[in-house]
């Protein structure tokens, strides 16, 4: 089986069998990154451009390592050191770099829809590493991969996404992916941080954290962006923590063998306390490790190359 599209723009509308293919493929790459020698020749001869117009630590490093461990050549684009500062458009930037014969573009941008736009003006495979408030598909896939590795399944699990639901591209991708794989999904946050017509996502909606966490298997905590407080979307950080912070006391509401997740970076003491983030039930660092395997799988599947002997 192959992916239906030569790009990864988002998880909305992606069928469960395609998601399963990505997760199954990531499992084999997860084994590779545990080896003493982690490099394989899968993408030898291919060139990948990491085009990041927004700051990133985990996603950018994860993609770069995934590319190098697949033996691809990589180009890292820095907005501040490019002709963008001279007024060059995104289209001209990409087409000029593509003229150097690149094969794939990993794009992060503050504007929703930019990855799709690139599919209209380039011949390269496009991978969305986060676009505006739209989607962040690789983060959701690594979240799903981490959950499946722990429980052996996604179907039938209850997953609660907590925090800034309105502005989070991670939330949107998680909703589409988890639902396609049969999980039950709920969202919880202040009413000011819930999207307009949130009910159209087809999830359970809560503004009471205790009710949302009751009977959940997985809690995935979204970062509160500090600029949201300045916008007046909630009274204070202290009040947000009191009402929506995931604390050890609230963990009693969860099912046994529960899991704590966070895409990072964490605001400790705001959306989650340190004792919860660092607890045995937390898989936050495992998410980072798994992200590399998932991104290796996506790069491989979109490249159309066959695995070589000995991998």
Describe the secondary-structure layout:
Blueprint: H1 16-32, E1 47-52, H2 58-69, E2 73-78, H3 90-98, E3 104-109, H4 114-121, E4 125-131, H5 137-151, E5 158-162, H6 169-180, E6 184-188, E7 204-206, H7 209-213, E8 218-221, H8 227-230, H9 237-244, E9 259-261, H10 274-277, H11 284-303
Parallel strand pairs: 1-2, 1-3, 3-4, 5-6, 5-8, 6-7, 8-9
Helix pairs in contact: 1-5, 1-11, 2-11, 5-6, 5-11
Question: Could you walk me through the main structural features you see in this protein, from its secondary elements to its overall organization?
Answer:
This protein is an alpha/beta fold and 311 residues long. The chain folds into two domains: 16-135 and 289-309, Rossmann fold (3-Layer(aba) Sandwich); 137-283, Rossmann fold, CATH 3.40.50. It is 37% helix and 14% strand. It contains eleven helices and nine strands. It has helices at 16-32, 58-69, 90-98, 114-121, 137-151, 169-180, 209-213, 227-230, 237-244, 274-277, 284-303; strands at 47-52, 73-78, 104-109, 125-131, 158-162, 184-188, 204-206, 218-221, 259-261. The strands form two sheets. It has a five-stranded parallel β-sheet. The chain has a four-stranded parallel β-sheet with strand order 2-1-3-4, sandwiched between helices. Strand 1 (47-52), helix 2 and strand 2 form a beta-alpha-beta unit. The longest helix is centred in the C-terminal third of the chain and has 20 residues, at 284-303. The radius of gyration is 19 Å and the shape is globular. The chain starts with 15 loop residues before the first helix and ends in an 8-residue tail after the last helix. The mean pLDDT is 93.
């Amino acid at each position: 089986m192959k992916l239906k599209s030569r790009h990864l723009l988002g998880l909305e509308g992606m069928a469960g069998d395609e998601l399963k293919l990505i997760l199954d493929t990531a499992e084999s790459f997860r084994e590779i990154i545990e080896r003493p020698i982690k490099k394989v020749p899968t993408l030898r001869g291919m060139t990948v451009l990491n085009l990041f117009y927004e700051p990133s630590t985990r996603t950018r490093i994860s993609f770069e390592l995934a590319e190098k461990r697949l033996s691809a050549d990589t180009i890292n684009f820095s907005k501040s050191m490019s002709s963008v500062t001279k007024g060059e458009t995104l289209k001209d930037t990409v087409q000029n770099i593509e003229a150097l014969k690149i094969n794939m573009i990993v794009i992060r941008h503050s504007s929703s829809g930019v990855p799709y736009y690139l599919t209209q003006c380039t011949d390269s495979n496009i991978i969305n590493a986060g676009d505006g408030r739209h989607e962040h598909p690789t983060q959701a896939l690594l979240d799903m991969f981490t959950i499946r590795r722990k429980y052996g399944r996604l179907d039938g699990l209850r997953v609660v996404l907590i925090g800034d639901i309105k502005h989070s591209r991670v939330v949107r991708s998680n909703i589409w992916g988890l639902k396609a794989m049969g999980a039950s999904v709920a969202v919880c946050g202040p009413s000011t941080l819930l999207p307009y017509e949130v009910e159209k996502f087809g999830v359970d909606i809560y503004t009471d954290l205790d009710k949302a966490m009751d009977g959940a298997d997985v809690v995935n905590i979204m970062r509160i962006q500090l600029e949201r407080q300045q916008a007046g979307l909630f009274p204070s950080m202290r009040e947000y923590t009191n009402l929506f912070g995931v604390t050890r006391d609230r963990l009693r509401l969860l099912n046994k063998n529960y899991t704590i997740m966070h895409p990072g970076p964490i605001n400790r003491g705001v959306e989650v306390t340190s004792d919860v983030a660092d607890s045995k039930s937390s898989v936050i660092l495992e998410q980072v490790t798994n992200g590399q395997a998932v991104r290796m799988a996506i790069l491989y599947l979109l490249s159309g190359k066959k695995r070589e002997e000995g991998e």
